[in-house]
Amino acid sequence: MSALKIEQGSSKHSAYDLRNPNAEVIETHTLAVVVDNEAGVLARVIGLFSGRGYNIESLTVAEVDHTGHRSRITVVTTGTPEVIEQIKAQLGRLVPVHKVQDLTTEGPSVERELALLKVAGTGDKRVEALRLADIFRANAVDSTLESFVFSIAGSTEKIDAFAELMRPLGLVEIARTGVAALTRGAD
């Protein structure tokens, strides 16, 4: 007999009930971090995440102010609300950081990602790949007799859905930029 005893008629949870009512909610947040564009800054930001065991779902970096030598790092991360607050506070304390925005909580924002997908196939699979690309508004940016490279921009969910539909049609390779995001409105 098992060491776990379950009482009949009890209000206790079953051993098979994996839901934990006390479990903390894991949220996904998009953070925009404006930093000095200098050597080692990205390594310091990433070191903050890796050193504390925080996860990065997506990361994009580019210079956004050539005269002021500033770059924007967009990070999509997951964690409990407390962990997200810790991440923002710790990012704000780094010396080369000028601004930290939580685009998830600061109001409406626009998020897009770009992906390139190589799909190899002939015959009906090739025709179906073109049909699906048209539905998803993906563009064929390269074509050979045996393959296509499609370019698609949109939400992460849209790109995931397109990739899943392309898998059985011969998806060979995928490259993704990661999320780029801005708040909506004049601010």
From TrEMBL:
NCBIfam families: acolac_sm, PRK11895.1. Belongs to the acetolactate synthase small subunit family. Catalyzes the conversion of 2 pyruvate molecules into acetolactate in the first common step of the biosynthetic pathway of the branched-amino acids such as leucine, isoleucine, and valine. It holds the Pfam family ACT_AHAS_ss. Gene3D superfamilies: 3.30.70.260, ACT-like. Chain A, domain 2. PROSITE patterns: ACT. Keywords: Amino-acid biosynthesis, Branched-chain amino acid biosynthesis, Transferase. GO terms for molecular function: acetolactate synthase activity. CDD domains: ACT_AHAS. This is Acetolactate synthase small subunit. The keyword Transferase applies. Dimer of large and small chains. Coiled coil: none annotated. It is an enzyme of class 2 (transferase). Transmembrane segments: none annotated. Its EC number is 2.2.1.6. It catalyses: 2 pyruvate + H(+) = (2S)-2-acetolactate + CO2. Residues 30-105 form the ACT domain. The gene is ilvN. Pathway: Amino-acid biosynthesis; L-isoleucine biosynthesis; L-isoleucine from 2-oxobutanoate: step 1/4; Amino-acid biosynthesis; L-valine biosynthesis; L-valine from pyruvate: step 1/4. InterPro entries: Acetalactate_synth_ssu (IPR004789), Acetolactate_synth/TF_NikR_C (IPR027271), Acetolactate_synth_ssu_C (IPR019455), ACT-like_dom_sf (IPR045865), ACT_dom (IPR002912), AHAS_ACT (IPR039557), AHAS_small-like_ACT (IPR054480). The keyword Transferase applies.
